[in-house]
Design brief:
Largest sheet of chain B: 5 strands, mixed, barrel
Pfam families (chain A): RecR_C, RecR_HhH, RecR_ZnF, Toprim_4
Number of domains of chain B: 2
Bound molecules: zinc ion
Structural class of chain A: alpha/beta
Shape of chain A: elongated
Number of strands of chain A: 7
Family (chain A): Belongs to the RecR family.
GO biological process, one term (chain A): DNA recombination
Strand order of the largest sheet of chain A: 4-3-5-6-7
Number of domains of chain A: 2
Helix content of chain A: 40-55%
Order of helices and strands of chain A: HHHEEHEHEHEHEHE
CATH class of the largest domain in chain A: Alpha Beta
Largest sheet of chain A: 5 strands, mixed
Organism (chain A): Klugiella xanthotipulae
Number of helices of chain A: 8
Oligomer: heterodimer
Function (chain A): May play a role in DNA repair. It seems to be involved in an RecBC-independent recombinational process of DNA repair. It may act with RecF and RecO.
Chain lengths: ~200, ~240
Amino acid sequence: MYEGIIQDLIDEFGRLPGIGPKSAQRITFHIVQSQSADVTRLAELLATVRERVRFCTQCGNVSEQELCSICRDARRDAGLICVVEEPKDVVAIERTRQFRGLYHVLGGAISPIDGVGPDDLNITQLMRRLADTEVREVILATDPNLEGEATATYLTRLLKTLEVPVSRLASGLPVGGDLEFADEITLGRAFEGRLTVS
Amino acid sequence: MPLYRDEAVVLRTHKLGESDRIVTMLSRDRGQIRAVAKGVRRTASKFGARLEPFMVADIQFFEGRTLDTITQAETLGAYGGNIAADFDRYAVANVMVETAERLTTEDEPARQQYLLLVGALRSLARGEHPPGLTRDSYLLRALSLAGWAPNFSECVRCGGELPAAHGGGTALVVQLGGTVCDACAPPGSPRMSAETIALLGTLLAGEWGRAKAHGEGTRAQARGFVSAYTQWHIERGIRSLRYGH
Ligand SMILES: [Zn+2]
Ligand SMILES: [Zn+2]
């Protein structure tokens, strides 16, 4: 344990996803020892991000405006909607350059043991969006792990009521992983080989 | 000894760092184990889906100072896929692993809890029974193993005969641990039909043939009692019980 404010900062970093106590300590001492201009810039950036970044009102992706840059792009095919868990999955799929449709970001996967149920995700928004617009296909691109599969199962059952064709990313994505780690080729192939599920 | 081996069922996982996970398991011989699976979130990981929730595996661990590391895993029961493919099963499996996590600790072996959980997950994955009945039977038996066995066959206060023995409605009190006769029932006790009392008894005993004969109304009543009984005994309750039905 360190004294007062240093320990407060370590605790604060330790609360961030993926940061263990050792990393939290390392980051804290890096900040304490770095040039004051760097730290000031970081502090300002954190405040600005908090202020300016919000979620796209249509797809739930991060955005600095009411609609994100993908939803604003008239060249994208509005008849295709790819459903993902997190904004970082949008980035991973964009890298493949395979997909020219729009996205819907759920904000996570259904995991009751972690207190995340269907109502905690942007699912109602998705249903409303599909009811209001003409969509040819919904592509479920949740993570290829258990929670992602279960979330896709739930959505497939729900989307049946709307009679929209639904497909699921397939081949080449071994179960157990996170979508963001799939390389462009594997992810691209998964898109091409997607399977109709309803 | 820096290396050890055990059979274990995965209860839950947490992301750690860039591509690792902390895996919480219930093992056959050592109670709960929390260990790191390195690189498991990379799509090329050697572990694949073997360390996903609800999977049973033969696992080799390397003892660390704070957390142990998983070095090998061989699948013994690949139940995750069939469970994730059906949302009702998934909701039930969540309740079961969360309950097992709360009823066991890292210091104490819990072989009976391990065997009960693995059996229930296997049955769920195979779709042997309606998922809701599998959950309620599991909860009653897991709580019994933990020392909170309910009683549905006699009055928990005086041991006397129940109205249910003659087909009558019977008082069933969560706080008293089961059925009570009319003479012992506190005023205002909730009453259940004789069918519900019978269903609870068959779920506790794991008599599936007789359990499945009961209709949805009776199952819903039994479910209400089992949920309340579970939440009453487990401090802070089971979060997953809020989902599914
Ligand atoms: Zn958008
Ligand atoms: Zn009595």
